[in-house]
Write a structure and sequence with these properties.
globular, five-stranded parallel β-sheet, binds magnesium ion, binds threonylcarbamoyladenylate, alpha/beta, 17 strands, single chain, twelve-stranded mixed β-sheet, about 350 residues
Length: about 350
């Protein structure tokens, strides 16, 4: 299969530019498209054949459910049932935007889309291309992140092409995505709101709208397994990983730099290619040929936005051992650390 690439300027485009993509979606094909978080790999949420194509193209385990992307509140009632007051309040406040809300599913939504679950994850993206694609096609779009399973999520069309060229019908190239990490996920299908995946919408922001919010304990776990199973099936897998081995080093700034410099020296002596992930404020502390800044500690959004770019860059550079500073849990409510820990396959040391 040849993957067509359609360039679109999100700030100024015409309906015709999305016509081909709409045709593909309506006939059960796959189109990758930009959202404000990461690129999604879209197919018709009501077509079991389309969702099975998504799993196949990504190499994704079929028990890992997909997020259904909608363009209006009417769409919500097409896919979700028993909509709770608290869930509706969150939707009204944060949609369109980077929040995914889990409700009981409408019977018509195929189990292949929801990984066999009786619930459905729904999100109304704010990205103009994403919303217009859903609206114009009339298709509720099931879309996981458009990366090969296990790889860092794509924040540019080039990342999608790298992972999925030849496996999907089309990529809409709308440039960089902005936020750069996936949506926050909350479960609103029960009596209280539970955060299943941290993201740009933080617990404090949710608490501005509903009285009680809890966090799935599996999110905060720093030890894999540990008897806790993540409630979002996708959170249990190794994920976001670069090809090299990533180690996170925690501690005071000087202790971290000292420890990383020692590790770099050791590995370089053994003949390995090493790299360091630092920040604008700390990048000069390292004695390594490759030191990359993820962003500035003074601007937490820049760190979130830099995360997947830098993890992919490590692969382009051929880094075999990658040492990273740790990012505080207050950066987007622990969202960045949550992804980093998985990318590092839980390898963290104290300096
Ligand atoms: O920002 C985003 O959310 C991006 C863009 C494309 O919208 N999408 C995304 O999808 O990150 P994906 O498939 O990479 O992550 C979806 C997560 C997985 O961890 C999955 O297990 C969880 O959502 N999920 C989906 N439906 C669920 C459900 N019914 N119950 C619990 N977890 C669910
Ligand atoms: Mg993903």
């Amino acid at each position: 299969m040849v993957t067509r690439v359609q360039k679109i300027n999100p700030d100024s485009f015409m309906a015709e530019e999305l016509e081909e993509a709409c045709k593909i979606l309506k006939s059960g094909g796959l189109v990758a498209f930009p959202t404000e978080t990461v690129y999604g790999l879209g197919g018709d949420a009501f077509n079991p054949l389309a969702s099975s194509k998504i799993y196949k193209a990504k190499g994704r385990p079929s028990d890992n459910p997909l997020i259904v992307h909608i363009a209006s509140m009417e769409d919500l009632y097409r896919v979700a049932d028993g909509i709770t007051d608290s869930g509706l309040k969150l939707a009204e406040k944060f949609w369109p935007g980077p929040l995914t809300i889990i409700f009981k599913k409408k019977e018509e939504v195929p189990l292949s889309t929801t990984g066999g679950l009786g619930t459905v994850a729904v999100r109304m993206p704010s990205h103009k291309v994403a919303r217009e694609l859903i609206r114009q096609s009339g298709v509720c779009i099931a879309a996981p992140s458009a990366n090969k399973s296990g790889r860092p999520s794509p924040v540019r069309a080039e990342h999608v092409i790298e992972d999925l060229a030849g496996r999907i019908d089309m990529v809409i190239d709308g440039g960089g995505t902005g936020i750069g990490i996936e949506s926050s996920i909350v479960d609103a299908s029960g009596s209280e709101i539970v955060i299943l995946r941290p993201g740009y919408i933080t617990k404090d922001m949710l608490l501005g709208v509903v009285d009680k919010v809890t966090t799935d304990p599996a999110i905060e776990s720093r030890i894999p397994g540990e008897g806790i199973t993540a409630k979002a099936p996708g959170m249990k897998y190794r994920h976001y990983a670069p090809e090299g081995e990533l180690l996170i080093v925690e501690g005071s700034q000087s202790a971290v730099a000292g420890r990383i410099n020692t590790l770099v020296e050791e590995k370089e002596k053994e003949g390995y290619k090493t790299a360091v992930i630092a920040t604008d404020e700390t990048k000069n502390l390292y004695k390594c040929k490759i030191v990359k800044s993820i962003g500035s500690r003074k601007n937490e959004a820049s760190i979130a936005a830099g995360l997947y770019d830098i993890l992919r860059e490590m692969d382009y550079l051929g880094a075999q051992y990658i040492y990273s500073e740790s990012f505080d849990n207050d950066i987007l409510g622990g969202a960045v650390m949550n992804r980093m820990i998985k990318a590092a396959a839980y390898h963290i040391v104290q300096a």
